[in-house]
Design goal:
Length: 373
């Protein structure tokens, strides 16, 4: 779970990257500024800066607080003890370090922008985010305040703020779009349904043509043509196999509700199926051999088959015709689009400074780089 509005990833392409040489200590142009140092994060003191975001210092203490909080949130959801041992800290740092840095950048930029535009979420929005957070960590019967006390310290205080920050970030997303990010109109649903119906109708037409090609090939094979030669003529998927063995399969390897499983229940060696769905299209399938598979002593071995196939491309239908599901999908798309716009706007004007370099989580490499100099 990403917290603090951490969905909009920073793109390095947005920034002007340079070394500290030629860059002022407090640059005024957007970009990423990297000091000519090689310091591991374990060598920093709690109050030392890890980076600056638009001139605002982010310390090692800030980094560790967020790292420990994210781990404790995971432990809460898994009903595990919240204590983090000293042995676990280096592992957490190495595995989560870069993503924690990115999230600190996001969190800081979002908070700065919220202050700039005076973004204040409504109380009901915060309460909805509280319910969402509790549900996400399987703690619906608890309260945010109670869990914050359980977590304790700076981590607990930040945990208490998460619903407010999530609701605030929703206000920020709304600020960069003219779309309503809280509801979907009947007109929007109707337009999307019309598009899906048109798409699915086209898919049906294309799949009907594919089935016709396969049935014609099957008829030629039954009349004496070579399965492999027919496959060479019409197979158009990435791995057509051209009549070579698809593989040996036991009957239970195909889901019981799929066409191929149902056909194999009565198929014999030499039989050829009608067109059936496979993972990469539509296919006619031939049974080269039918035998018994492996089974533990005392159990009936399952039927097993050596199969070949001739596969052609097929169109997958969108399928989600339910209005409620369509509404949820449209709302998600609109919010994701607004999140991208917000992230691009903030990263495009951000000044990020790394006073200790960017390889904070690889001290061995840092030392090696220092020795080379």
């Amino acid at each position: 779970m990403l917290l603090f509005g951490g969905f909009a990833l920073l793109s390095a392409a947005v920034f002007v990257v340079c070394g500290i040489t030629g860059c002022s200590k407090h640059p005024t142009k957007p970009g990423v500024y990297i000091a000519d140092k090689r310091v591991g994060i374990q060598d920093l003191k709690p109050g030392d800066p890890v980076l600056y975001v638009n001139g605002e210092k982010i310390t090692k203490r800030d980094f560790e607080t967020l790292m420990f909080l994210k781990d404790k949130i995971w432990r809460l959801g898994q009903n595990l003890p919240l204590e983090i041992t000293e042995d676990e800290v280096p592992v957490l740092t190495a595995n989560a370090g870069p993503s924690i840095i990115m999230e600190l950048i996001h969190r800081t930029m979002f908070r700065q922008y919220a202050k700039e535009i005076g973004a204040v979420p409504k109380g009901e929005a915060v309460r909805a985010c509280e319910k969402g957070l509790l549900k996400a960590i399987n703690r619906s019967n608890d309260t945010i305040s109670g869990l914050a006390v359980m977590i304790g310290g700076r981590e607990g205080e930040i945990f208490r703020q998460i619903p407010y920050m999530d609701a605030r970030d929703a206000v920020l997303r709304q600020s960069v779009t003219t779309n309503d990010l809280d509801s979907v109109s009947d007109a929007e649903i109707e337009r999307r349904l019309a598009y899906v119906e048109k798409f699915d109708a086209n898919a049906d037409a294309q799949n009907d043509k594919a089935r016709k090609r396969l049935l014609e090939a099957k008829a030629r094979i039954l009349a004496g043509a070579s399965f492999a030669e027919e496959a060479k003529k019409i197979a158009d998927t990435v791995n057509p196999q051209y009549g070579k063995a698809w593989g040996d399969f036991e009957i239970q390897e195909f889901p019981a509700d799929e066409e191929l499983h149902k056909w194999l229940l009565t198929a014999k060696a030499g039989d050829i199926s009608d067109p059936v769905d496979v993972e990469d299209g539509l296919a006619i399938v031939k049974v080269l051999d039918k035998h018994k598979g492996a089974a533990p002593p005392g159990h009936e071995p399952p039927d097993a088959f050596t199969l070949v196939r001739c596969t052609v491309k097929a169109c997958e239908k969108m399928r989600y015709q339910d209005r409620e599901e369509m509404s949820r999908q449209l709302l998600l798309w609109k919010r994701e689009d607004a999140q991208r716009k917000l992230g691009m706007m903030l990263t495009g004007r951000a000044v990020i400074e790394y006073p200790n370099g960017t390889n904070l989580f690889d001290n061995a490499a840092a030392k090696a780089a220092g020795e080379e100099k």
